[in-house]
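2.7 Reproducibility. Because tokenized structures are sensitive to small changes in the input, we list the exact sequence used for Uridine phosphorylase, including any N-terminal residues retained from the expression construct. No trimming or masking was applied before prediction.
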Amino acid sequence: MTPHNRADKADIAPVVLAPGDPLRAKLVAEHFLSDARLVTDVRNMLGYTGFFKGQKVTVMATGMGGPSIGIYSYELFTTYDVKAIIRIGTCGGLQKQIGIGDLVCAMTASTDSAWAHQYNLKGTLSPCCDSELLFKAVDQAKQLGYPCHAGMVFSSDLFSSYNALGQESWKAWARMGALAQDMETYALYATAAWTAKRALSLLTMTDSCVSGEGFGPEMRSKGLFPMIEVALGVALEV
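Resulting structure tokens (single pass, no recycling of outputs):
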């Protein structure tokens, strides 16, 4: 156990799906896993372990922002010997070709966070995903017929709608090719690199910064099902 996870080591599967929202972890457990049971609920960060097509899978919430996912992913990688974490999150779209509900596979992440200062690097770290997980996710999405885009994402400490710098500050990142903005991918990828483990951030574009369009309340759950299906398909092959 850790200060943030009460599960026994045997309770956690080698592959963990990691939504930010605890209720999304509950949704995955109830709708996609068989024999799922709650294995941790410290600070209401719900974690469940069950089976998908006979394979043991854990889904555990990681909270909001880089520091939160950094804590949970580090403990999962080190204390629980997790081999791979697949983030299943939401994002704001920064490019007009990305439609509402499309999937975004983060090849690499840029950031405005100081997260990487802890590594004492004499330069700028640009952490990337595990390439095998990326290839499998893109292939799964194609097989299932879900639109999927792969490229750079921008992980910000600032929620775009509440950004004091202005709600159009994302445009500079879009010009540099960022497909979408989230808050967690950079810290996850940096932590995976530091611990020599595997990670992929698979995102659903729920709100477009370009058009202003987004999911309605009824789609905030079922609109994420394609992403979850793809992530579980990848988990089977890890």
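The domain at 9-236 is CATH 3.40.50.1580 (Rossmann fold).
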